[in-house]
Design goal:
Elements (H helix, E strand, L loop, with lengths): L4 H10 L5 H14 L3 H7 L5 H12 L13 H4 L4 H7 L1 E7 L2 E6 L5 H11 L3 E5 L2 H11 L3 H10 L6 H4 L2 H14 L4 E6 L3 E8 L2 E9 L3 H12 L10 E9 L2 E12 L2 E9 L15 H11 L4 E6 L6 H12 L6 E5 L10 E4 L8 H8 L6 E4 L5 H12 L3 E6 L7 H7 L4 H7 E13 L4 E7 H4 L5 H8 L4 E7 L10 E12 L2 H8 L4 H10 L5 H10 L5 H7 L6
Parallel strand pairs: 2-3, 10-14, 10-15, 11-12, 11-13, 13-14
Antiparallel strand pairs: 1-2, 4-5, 4-9, 5-6, 7-8, 8-9, 15-18, 16-17
Helix pairs in contact: 2-3, 9-11, 11-12, 15-16, 16-18, 18-21, 20-23, 21-22
């Protein structure tokens, strides 16, 4: 954008969007999340992306364009080479008798205006567009995977199809599109008459392309070659990894291949750079929960446990904590399966069953490496649990994950793994239970009003009153569906948390082997917010929908 922070504050105060109280909240969020002032305004729903752009454009008397609301001709879109356009945050969006119209994050960028004028021999008319809107336009143009795929197939025919189609380009296209769509997993599966590719986006699987079955084995062979797996093995599972370069970024991928009835199925997990610099605030952790977690990792000993099902963001939360703790004065060692993200300055060990390097054996060796902080990827068995607890008891800070449904059931679970109650009470500092829910798409967000009667069948009336007040109608948000969010109304994810801090009273309950219901009741008295409550708070903030909160917290919604 072309406006300074001070100018923007003045503009927003003038249109009654920002006051001193809200300004302080935005600046605190900006500091904790390590993002810009404008990004903070958008994340806290102080103003929409489009209204922010219009406000700035009106101030500088520059025409404004919302690219998400128009169709850009392909020949016009390619007037500026994509690499330059991305770097300069500019898109040519229309061409008529008046000249070439450019959408620019900075309409004062004279070099790009002169370049387009010289190249086209036309007058250039700069328009202001938000950076988010410009990047989304690139994203939409990259998305037509089926169309691009069909174009490649049409160049070949029938008998020569399997041999002539450039399979390396097909694989590159699949991975590039997955990257731009912020896909977490790519499923490549054979069916009876065709192949199918599905993308997992924001936790939900989408069918994105079908292709002739004759190409399936070639696609799998290409992936095996890139991952250095055996290309002649078709009856046994294989696991590998590969690295792919996009826009000067290296994307690491995990490949899993298994034999199914119709052939071999491959699943690629993208370990994207999108998540490498995420903080706990970015993940959606409230200030109150963040304070509890900060107290726990501020200690030099004890255990921090992150719990939840597969795909609930446990590892990302742990990595965010490790980044805070990662200083040159501390020796941090991890043992993981697999190592998802490399952290500079941290000693990361990959579990290797063939070399008899398990979580338990690796943890024993790590303890002889003079560690300050240890991250155990997962506590899967009694042996690993015992070693981890003893490490925490002997002056190490141990961070790990565990598969339990909520925070309260974690403590009895450790006791069930033959850990003495007094050891659990002495070592566990905090338990973070979490789920991931989808955020409302910022590009098609709209408000609506619903009544208490529509919601009180699934949400306790006391919680509705706590988060939405006692008025008959409740003001909430939803996404109407657009090109950016695949018509779902959701784009991106954030966490819902319950953070159980082990207090003196809680330790007494652990020593008595209290069940999870008693522990939950005490945690509530100690001020713990449940995942449902945290989710409803995010609904009140306009970040997600009630349906989504009830879905991830396993409460039925009718």
């Amino acid at each position: 954008m072309i406006v300074t922070k001070e100018e923007l504050i003045t503009l927003l105060k003038k249109i009654d969007v920002l006051d001193d109280k809200k300004l302080k909240e935005v600046e605190n969020f900006m500091k904790n999340a390590h993002i810009s002032f404008q990004e903070s305004l958008l994340q806290l729903n102080v103003i929409t992306d489009e209204k922010l752009g219009i406000t700035i454009a009106n101030h500088f008397k520059i025409p404004f364009i919302s690219l998400s609301k128009i169709s850009i001709p392909e020949d016009v879109f390619h007037i500026i080479p994509e690499k330059i356009a991305r770097k300069k945050r500019v898109i040519a969006f229309a061409r008529d008798q008046a000249g070439i119209k450019l959408a620019m994050a900075d309409p004062n960028s004279k070099d790009i205006i002169e370049m387009v004028a010289h190249k086209t021999q036309s007058k250039v008319i700069p328009h202001l567009a938000t950076e988010c809107d410009i990047m989304n336009a690139f994203y939409i143009f990259k998305r037509d995977l089926q169309g691009s795929f069909n174009t490649m197939l049409n160049k070949s025919s029938g008998k020569t199809l399997a041999k002539d189609v450039p399979v390396s380009k097909i694989v590159n296209l699949i991975l590039e599109t997955a990257y731009y769509d912020k896909v977490s997993d790519v499923h490549i599966e054979p069916q009876e008459e065709s192949g199918l590719i599905r993308y997992r986006i924001d936790g939900i699987l989408h069918d994105v392309i079908t292709y002739p079955l004759i190409l399936h084995d070639r696609i799998l062979t290409r992936l095996k070659v890139l991952s250095r797996l055996r290309t002649d093995e078709h009856m046994s599972p294989q696991d590998g990894k590969l690295r792919f370069e996009i826009e000067d970024n290296y994307i690491d991928l995990r490949l899993s291949i298994i034999p199914i009835v119709e052939g071999e199925k491959a699943v690629l997990r993208l370990l994207s750079a999108h998540n490498k610099n995420i903080t706990l605030t970015d993940l959606g952790m409230s200030d109150k929960d963040l304070e509890r977690v900060s107290r726990a990792y501020g200690k030099s000993y004890g255990m921090i446990l992150s719990t939840g099902p597969t795909g609930s963001g446990k590892s990302t939360t742990i990595y965010a904590i490790l980044k805070v703790l990662n200083t040159r004065s501390k020796n941090i060692t991890t043992i993981e399966d697999p190592v998802e993200y490399r952290i500079k300055g941290v000693n990361q060990i990959q579990v290797n069953k063939k070399a008899e390097l398990t979580f338990a054996s690796g943890l024993r060796s790590v303890l002889r490496q003079d560690p300050n902080i240890i991250f155990v990827g997962e506590i899967r068995d009694k042996e690993t649990a015992g070693i981890a607890v003893n490490a925490a008891l002997t002056g190490h800070l141990v961070v790990s994950t565990l598969h339990t449904n909520d925070a309260a059931t974690t403590l009895p679970r450790l006791i069930d793994m033959d850990i003495e109650p007094f050891l659990v009470a002495s070592t566990v500092n905090v338990i973070i239970a979490q789920r991931l829910l989808r955020k409302i798409c910022d590009m098609c967000k709209s408000s609506l009003e619903v009544t208490h009667d529509n919601l009180d069948q699934n949400v306790p009336a006391s919680l509705l009153k706590k988060f939405f007040g006692s008025k008959k109608s409740i003001h909430i948000y939803k996404g109407s569906g657009c090109n950016i969010c695949h018509g779902t109304g959701y784009m991106g994810r954030l966490g819902v948390y319950e953070v159980l801090e082990v207090t003196k009273t809680m330790r007494e309950l652990i020593l008595k082997k209290a069940d999870s219901d008693v522990i939950l009741e005490q945690a509530a008295k100690d001020g713990m917010t449940t995942m449902l409550e945290d989710g409803l708070e995010k609904v009140a903030q306009g970040l997600t929908t009630i349906e989504e909160v009830l879905r991830v917290t396993k409460v039925e919604f009718e």
